[in-house]
């Protein structure tokens, strides 16, 4: 299979380790990965702010960069959801629709396409897992706790394959961290309070690391951890799954 690696802006600019870990993990699993060097923002920040009509250039470039791949994989639930639901083009509508059907968030690709059953990873630490809203409610990476249905979590199932890891229980397993993209700018006080509550749940259960599928959420919580002088660190899911 030909897999195109899509790296979101904030991962590229602030957390390149998550991108490198994603690439290395896929290659360890025998996947041939290509990185289109001309890729830019997918347009999600503009669309979330009510300016989706200005994302035409982003859409066309994304189609140009990724249309020829069998699959597209990204270490970001929110960006993948944006592409799946909002990518469009007046000139290349078939290309846009094709991309929407073959783009995957990393944990979903590992679980649903590669059907990974074991990993050579080691991470002997206590880890709290943050289930980001876009991934959970948009991409269905895990079950919503308010539903009377069997629980599942693709990130959890992968983490359980990591040797030495201890996944700490949380009191509120799928509560929002308060980041919400532009929400954290427009509603700073509410966003910060939600983030503090989310961080406290992890800390009270002894987490040494907090992980998830979206570095944006983890970045929000990292800022709160740093402000309170905590030694707890954040790591993208890919960095733990790739650890040895």
UniProtKB/TrEMBL annotation:
<feature type="domain" description="Cysteine-rich">
    <location>
        <begin position="3"/>
        <end position="84"/>
    </location>
</feature>
<dbReference type="InterPro" id="IPR004017">
    <property type="entry name" value="Cys_rich_dom"/>
</dbReference>
<protein>
    <submittedName>
        <fullName>(Fe-S)-binding protein</fullName>
    </submittedName>
</protein>
<dbReference type="Pfam" id="PF02754">
    <property type="entry name" value="CCG"/>
</dbReference>
<feature type="domain" description="Cysteine-rich">
    <location>
        <begin position="127"/>
        <end position="221"/>
    </location>
</feature>
